[in-house]
Prior knowledge:
Blueprint: H1 2-7, H2 13-28, H3 32-49, H4 55-70, H5 74-91, H6 97-112, H7 116-132, H8 138-159, H9 163-187, H10 193-207
Helix pairs in contact: 2-3, 2-4, 3-4, 4-5, 5-6, 6-7, 7-8, 8-9, 9-10
Amino acid sequence: MITYKENFPDSHVGVLWTERELGDVYRNLGEYSKAENLLKHNLMVQKKHYKEQSEKHAKTSLYLAKVYVDRGEYKQAKNLFKASLIIYKKYYGANHIETARLLENIAQIHFLENHLDDAEKILLEALRIFLSCKHLESYRVLENISELFLKKLEQAKQAGDSRSVQNNYKNQAITYLNQAQTNIKEYSSKDSLNLIRIQKKLENLAVE
């Protein structure tokens, strides 16, 4: 970053890329203020020198949205994710893997806000894209949908819903986990940590 800034202007693509990735590193380290400042500066420079509707602008907005998610500022995060989604659909296409990954991020916010039906709808759309591309990451979406139904199950228990309602949620969670297990076996070895995690979840559900 220092080397780039010593030799190139802020608008240079290398400076922008490095600044954006550094911002995400700060986020992963939990240094959210540093991350936010870097990413906001990155967006400001892009807006001045490049098209605001570019893929680069959308990706930086996505990184900034993740900062807000980690800080629990879901409204700001959702607005940035949705703005990025419009650009991603134009740049990559509505059925591209990158678009599906962004849909997962939007679904995560709905899940955290307890808007489970909305989260489910978006995750199913992301799943459709991954499956149509025969992509390994479909297992992750299937696992997330399973978690969604487990959350519905817990809420049903707390609300005193009928046993049939509770069993329906549990069975759907198991169904999605089984599908995740099948999909990951196709692409990964038997000692894959992701596969082991999913198998453990299935074992736990079997004894509940």
